[in-house]
Amino acid sequence: MTIRRTRRTARLVAGLLLLPAALQAQSAPTDLSEERASFSHWLMTNPVSPRNAIARREIGTGLLLGPDTADIPLPGVAQQRVTERDGRVVLAGPDGERILPRGRAVPLAAYTLVADGAPTGAVLTVFQQRGGGKKAGFYPYDPSLVFEGTLAPPGEATRQRVLGVDGIESDAVEAGSVSLPVGGSKVRLRVLRVRPPGTEESELTIFFRDGTNSSGTYPAGRFVELVPVGGGRYRLDFNRARNPYCAYNSVYPCPAPWRGNTIPAPVRAGELYLGGGLDAPTPGGAGR
C-alpha cells in the first residue's frame, strides 16, 4: 500500500536494477535525457506547440474566423465559419466545406487549426508559428526522487471531469492513492485514471503541488504518471514531472489543484517554470 524510495544498493527488485548512489548520481538515464531533448525540440519547433497557440475557444453554436469583427480575428483570412455537426467539426468558407478531424492539424493560410475536446463539446485552437522564446528547463536528475511500490485502492471509484496536461477536459476515475516519504515526512497522493476524449487508452495520473511552486516551478502544479513495472507494482519518477500547457501560454485553461495532493517539501525534480503562463487557479474546480 506504500510507495517507497528505491534503495541505493546494487540488487534486483521486481526486475529493476537499482544502482549504487555513486553510479546513479553520475547522469540521468538515457531515455530520460532523450525524452527531455525531444520535448524541448518539439516545444520550440512544432507548429502546434502550445507556445504557438494564439486563440482557443469552445465551438458551441459556431465560431467565425477571419475579419476584425469575427470571434477569432485572423488577418489575411477570408471569413470562415466553424461548426459542430453530429460530433464532427466542419470548417466552411469561400472554397467550400471541409472536416477538421479531432486532434489533427489543418492549415488555413498562415495559421494552423486543431479541433479537440469531447464529441459534443469541441474546442478550436488556432496556432501561428513564432520563433524565439525560452527553451524548456529542468532540474538536474535526482535518483532519490524515484519511488517504487503498490497502489492503494480507492474507498470508492468515483468518476469526475478533470483538465488534462493540454487543458482538455477528460473523464477520470479515482484509481487509488500512493504514500511516499518526501522531505522527511510521509505524503499521500491521489491517483486518477484519466482517459482523453476520443481514445480508449488511459493513464494513471497525479497532479501535485509542492514547496517549489512559484519558486522554480509552475504555481498551479505539475503532472507525473504512475507507471506499471509488473507484479502489481508501480514507479513514480518525479524527474519526469511536467508542466500543464497553461505554463507556456495563457490561451490554455489551467487545472485546479487536486484536493489533498500537496507535498509540503520542495520537489526539485522535473520541469521548471520559465514564465509566460497563467496564474494558479484557486482550489475547488474539477478534480476536487
Q: Can you characterise this structure?
A:
Helices cover 7% and strands 38% of the residues. The longest helix has 16 residues, at 30-45. A hairpin with a 2-residue loop joins strand 15 and strand 16. The protein is mainly β and 288 residues long. It has two helices and 19 strands. Strands 1-13-19-18-17-16-15-14 form an eight-stranded antiparallel β-sheet, with no helix packed on it. Strands 6-5-7-8-9 form a five-stranded mixed β-sheet, with no helix packed on it.
- The tally of strands reads 19
Task: Give the overall silhouette.
Answer: globular
Q: Secondary-structure element sequence?
A: EEEHHEEEEEEEEEEEEEEEE
Total helices: the number is 2
Kindly estimate the percentage of residues that lie in beta strands according to DSSP.
Answer: 35-45%
Mean pLDDT over the full residue set: 85
Please mark out the parts with pLDDT under 50 across 5 or more consecutive residues, or reply none. 4-25, 281-288
* Strand order across the largest sheet: 1-13-19-18-17-16-15-14
**Proportion of helical residues:** under 10%
- N- to C-terminal separation? 22 Å
Rg, Cα atoms, Å: 21 Å
Largest sheet, described in full? 8 strands, antiparallel
**Class from helix and strand fractions:** mainly beta
